[in-house]
Amino acid sequence: MTLRHLLPATIARPLAAYSHGVEIAAGARLVLCSGQLAIGPQGDVPEDAGAQAERCFANGAAILAEAGMTLADVVRINAYVTDRAHMAPYMAVRDRLFAQPAPASTLMIVTGFTRPEFKVEIELLAARP
Questions:
Q1: N or C: which end of the chain has fewer CB within 10 A?
Q2: What is the span of the domain harbouring residue 114?
Q3: What global pTM score does this model have?
């Protein structure tokens, strides 16, 4: 499947490693992942925001694998962190996991999640023919 990463010259370049938009060809299969928190199979939650981002993406990758997809099929990321201090660790993980051109992406700072130990939540949208 050919994706077209949209980076118009008439607007400012992205502030980080993401595309302003991604065009998906008609007929593609789509998988939308619910927001993933950093909960391990045994219910454990890492303390560090970077480790939480790793776990969130690993959980998302497991969901995509159920549909025969991988993180390479991700076209959009919506991510949420509970503090500006968590942005850099999250972005370091995201930038390592996704090749250029990167998916479309939004990162928001929120006041919290369902439990206070959660610092990162990630939603994924993936597409494959």
A1: C
A2: 32-128
A3: 0.93
